[in-house]
Predict the 3D structure of the following.
Amino acid sequence: MTSATERPLLFLDVDGPLIPFGSSSGHPHPPAAGQGNPLLERLDPELGSRLMALGCQLVWATTWMEEANEVVAPRVGLPRLPVVEWPDPSAAEQGPHGLHWKTGHLVEWADGRPFIWVDDEIAAVDHLWVEASHPGPALLHRVDPARGLVDADFSALADWLRPVLPGSERPACAEGPVRPRSG
């Protein structure tokens, strides 16, 4: 198995990608009575194994912070993951208009390593920023927040990873014309 430092990073947001805001028909899921946070009922317990099968080093990149390990990870079958600690909010506001407050910090955290960022708030300016600021391959993958991560998203991630993963840790063949950024 490839060491974690050689594998690409996969920065993972919770709200939107793992906890969808609606069903595939666009109607909200009903809340679960007496179960604490009703949004947690929207978590797909199969997501953890599907994410682990990609062969990346998974990292929480969410405002849930450490709570993602305590509440989300056990419900989707993930181990404890590293958590991106966000900078002071005033520092996060630096950058061009429209740049997501996470973007610069994730590029810094990756420190040149190949990475995927899965979020529902990625915009064109984030792609431009990463292309100009990150020397390695990067995929910024926007997830439809109404649906969360679905088969098509996993196919796109696997396609991008195929030429990026070292050795034989290649995900199963998938569809979609996603390619790593040349650097």
